[in-house]
Specification:
single chain; alpha/beta; Rossmann fold; five-stranded parallel beta sheet
Length: 146
């Protein structure tokens, strides 16, 4: 029985399928809430900017956009009768997702899939592979709708 679902998302368009799937599963399984781990880039991602002030502004703007999008998704889940708890993480993603799954006592992790390049997959560096190997529970991968 699935009682606790952890959704890991980067809020990309590819991740929308994972939201839909997690919300549907939660509703059908009778889960009252899902936990969402939202992946945010760390400020170091923006290191190409010369000015700290510009760096901070770009990061703050993207953070605010992510929060706005996250709120829309949460509101859509509430309409479906599913409560959502959210948290933000940055790097390393696979470690943070599996740690959150342990803390939440998740029965299922739902991940949206993005296309890793062939080299990353061969070297075992894909996020999905890393999470699947370290996860304390089942992992369900939601393929983006095209």
């Amino acid at each position: 029985m699935i009682e606790r679902i952890l959704l890991a998302t980067d809020l990309s368009s590819d991740g929308q399928a994972a939201w839909t799937l997690a919300c549907t599963l939660a509703r059908q399984a009778g889960c009252q809430a899902i936990s969402v781990v939202c992946v945010q880039p760390s400020p170091a991602t923006y290191s190409e900017f010369d000015s700290d002030r510009v760096l901070r502004r770009v990061y703050d703007d993207e953070y605010q956009q992510a929060n706005d999008m996250l709120k829309r998704y949460v509101d859509a889940c509430l309409v479906e009768g599913v409560r959502v708890r959210t948290s933000m993480i940055s790097r390393p993603i696979a470690e943070a997702v599996t740690k959150a799954a342990h803390q939440e006592h998740a029965d299922l992790i739902v991940l949206g899939i993005r296309h890793a390049d062939m080299i990353d997959r061969l070297l075992g560096k894909s996020l999905v592979g890393q999470v699947a190997r370290a996860a304390p529970c089942h992992v369900l991968i939601a393929k983006p709708s095209r």
